[in-house]
C-alpha cells in the first residue's frame, strides 16, 4: 500500500529543459523520464509507485553532471511537501516547514 505523490521535475540553472534531456536520454535507462511530459513541456506525474525516485534521479544527474535537477514532491498527506535537488549523483533534500501565526485577539472578526 502507499499513497500518491505528485512529482514535478525541472532543470535549475541550466540551458537544457526536460524535453531536450528526455529526447537525449537513453530509452532503456531512463524510460520513466519519457512518459510524463505534458503538452506544456512540464514533466509531471502522480504516482504511488516511484519508490526509486532518488536512485533514478541520481543516475540522471550523473549522466548530466553540470545540470541541477529540481524534483518537487507533494504527497497526499497534508503538509508533506518537499524539493530534492540533484547534481552529479548528489542530492539535497528540503522539506516544507509549515508555520502558523500565534493567536491575536485583535484579529478576531
Write up this protein.
- The protein has 109 residues and is α+β, with helices and mostly antiparallel strands.
- It has one domain.
- 20% of the residues lie in helices and 31% in strands.
- The chain is built from three helices and five strands, in the order βααβαβββ.
- It has helices at 18-24, 31-34, 53-63, and strands at 5-12, 43-47, 68-75, 81-87, 90-95.
- Strands 2-1-3-4-5 form a five-stranded antiparallel β-sheet, with helices on one face.
- The longest helix is centred in the middle third of the chain and has 11 residues, at 53-63.
- The N and C termini lie far apart (44 Å).
- The model has no long low-confidence stretch (mean pLDDT 84).
- Coarse structural class: alpha+beta
Q: Could you give the order of strands across the largest sheet? A: 2-1-3-4-5
- Low-confidence segments, given as residue ranges, are none
Helix segment count? Answer: 3
The description of the largest β-sheet is: 5 strands, antiparallel
Order of secondary-structure elements: EHHEHEEE
Number of strands: 5
Average residue-wise pLDDT = 84
